[in-house]
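Researcher: Here's a chain I'd like modeled. Treat it as a single chain, no partners, no ligands.
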Amino acid sequence: MSSETRAAQPPRIDRVLNLVERIGNKLPQPFLLFGLLFLIVVAVSTVVAAFGVTVQIPGADEVTPIRGALSGEGLEFLFTKMAENFIGFPPLETVVTIMLAVGLAERTGMLTALIRAAFGGAPRWVLPYAVGLVGISASVMADSSMIIIPPLAALVFKAAGRHPVAGLLGGFAAVGAGYSTAPVVTSLDALFSGISNKVAETLPDPGTMVTPVSNYYFNLASSIVLGLLAGVLIDKVIEPRMVRTGVPREQVDAVDEPEVKVGLEPAERRGLIWAGVAFLITFGLVLLLVLWPNSPLRNETGGFLPTSPLLDSVTTLIFLGFAVPAIAYGAIAGSIERAGDVPKLMAAALRDLTGFLVLAFMLGQFIALFNWTNLGSWVAVSGADLLRVLNLDGYPAFLGFMVLASVLNLFIISGSSLWTLMAAVFVPMFALLGFEPGFAQAAFRVGDSATQIMTPLNPYMIIILGYLRRYEPNAGIGTLVARMVPFVAPFWLVWALILTVFYFADLPLGPGMDIHIGP
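Model: Modeled as a single isolated chain. Structure tokens:
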């Protein structure tokens, strides 16, 4: 083969990912895809239920039957719950509420001004690593991070003269693939530890009580390494591929795209100062409410963990954190001239969500039916049974456990729901092998996140696809999946390697949490 022929051929990784993209894009459009999956659940659940299949969920007193969608009960569910399944679709309330505030902040110009002020003097080479570390840490904002970080990362890249699509994709990958870890304690830590303890307390030797900081050392190491890894992948793999394949740098609808300049105008500087003042005042008022001894944001014991109204208020706090400063900025910078401009700017933000709202209708029907039929529980318990049949023990058992969690994560996106199912089986199983529940929980984190950025069942992928189509109107699910694939395997392998180091070095996973039960 001549050197000219070799030079003309795209790199091997491009050929592989192009194949993934072509295959993925042959799938129906997302609305039709979930409509087809809905019909498959209807058929499969009806057939399985006809054979009287049941599932014994560990910890439950009675067996759980698989319910058929075409039974009398199923038809009643389908006919009476359609509107509830749509309006009650969990991401809908988060996405719509936050996009009202984020869209307001974007259309007043506050976000672009803030990004230029923050990153205008930063070296271009730093940005991928900053996006990676911020994305990994963003799970402190819960699911809201998947809506906020990617478009902000795109703006950061564009402001620095780098490819905005690389920032968009890298931001989503860092947030999604690293969702189960962070350098700070999050509500997810409290949620996971509560589930672990609930299962462990039924054991003869429950081991050490799991607390929200029981995985802190492991999380801290993981978040730093994975954040840097995300930066490397964005810088060395994703952005060069965006350039090689000619992905546009400009949005198709340039009218709606915020103008990105290098410097700040005097009005913008004044606007940012007053936006900062508004944010501090809002933060101070919320802090006073939180610290008030009889605060309604405290739980029944007067604290905040493992659950409390404060932790349930993340969406509200993020809304206030964007909306109040945005209004202050717009009033000073001149993008808001009268009170009536605020709802107009919010309405403009919601127009961008019309496609997602239509898709959310079908996605809500599919997920609600999938949960109602109990097929998800059946799949999870069957996978756990398979792992037990293989009779693995020691570290190979944990590797198999992490692989199983990654596979199930393609179908059950909620980490708390998946851990509830898997902890009931594996915490007792591993405790009998002498492993702390906190170690089983740490292993679950590895398998819980990496694959969720490549499954169409992740509703936030549809949000990112909408952003991607601003640059590539013909992009499909296959396009997005192909661009997420380079993150999945490296994240999984490196994260598993970090756990392996903790395991063989017998390092504590967090304060008071060892690998093995007992001395």
